[in-house]
Amino acid sequence: MGRFRQIFWLCRKILRRFSLTKYYSILPEHNVVRICKASCVQNNEIQPTAFEPRHAEDYLSVHWIEYIKQKTSLAEGVGLVRDFLLEHSQFEKEFKPTAKGKLAVLRVGELVDFTKDGKTTGFVCKHMPREKNGPKFGEQYDFRTAGFDPHSGIFTLPLEGAELLAVQQYLISKIIYSEPGK
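^ that's the sequence the OP posted. Answer follows.
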């Protein structure tokens, strides 16, 4: 039975890596924003649980700042992501920023391979629009363009146990900017 699990795990990992090739990789100098729910903020500090994958996702859901506007300050970029999320109701299952929650910014290039107890976790950031045929990065568009969606994902996260907690704490240490959700 153990051999079957190894083969299944290896096949799943290969298929996952292959399926990621269809998504655009986010450049290392770009930034992504994570919406941190109010329950993940205590004493105005973001808690590790803010970096736990949601629902049945096998990645960490984030939003790509430079997809919205290529040359922008972090404060302006976070504001643009906030505006996008509050204005677009077509993504009903999307977590919306709240006054008690926070928006945390991570620089993609700073998410290097993380090693703990001899196990290495690599991070890959990909643009994952929820609608097909949206504008490609670098094209001229705005919030009203059909298919516009800065939704992205940070992949190759362990999904459970002590490894997940270690990665969550690592990601908290990589926050370069944060501000209230609303």
